[in-house]
Amino acid sequence: MRTIGVRELKAHLSRALRDVQRGEHYLVTDRGRVVAELCQPGNVSAGAMSRDERIRLEMAAAGELRLAEGPRVALRRTGVKLPDGTAAELLDWVRGDR
Fold first, then answer.
1. Could you give the number of structural domains in the chain?
2. Host domain of residue 68
3. 30-59: pLDDT as tens digits
């Protein structure tokens, strides 16, 4: 499954459609929010998704998570140090586990 922004989709529509014909599945985003899915007709994507993937898409649709677009880029460290467990605590809060 790939993520593609509306602007990139407009610029590369023919390529995206060829990918879909080969079985690729696209999530179309507008300003980081999923607004559409592009897949072959009759392809029931929700049933084929894992639970984690479904949760990730729901979080993106609610604006709690922003999906990456385009090629993956290596991030550099900023030197900011947070206490151990901060990421887990934030995820628990977003998921409503706390």
1. 1
2. 2-95
3. 888 888 888 887 665 555 667 787 788 778
Cα gap 66→9, rounded to integer Å:
18
The confidence band for 95, taking pLDDT boundaries of 50, 70 and 90, is confident
Q: Has this prediction a pTM greater than 0.90?
A: no
- What CATH number did the domain enclosing 9 receive? 3.40.1620.10
Q: Which sign does the torsion angle of CA 25, 31, 32, 36 carry?
A: negative
Strand pairing class (2-5; 26-30): parallel
Answer yes or no: is pLDDT of 12 > 60.
Answer: yes
3-state secondary structure at position 25: coil
Residues 6+ apart with CB under 8 A from 46: 54
Give the up-direction half-sphere exposure of residue 35: CA atoms within 13 A in the CB hemisphere. Answer: 11
Q: Which two tokens stand for residue 43?
A: 């392809």
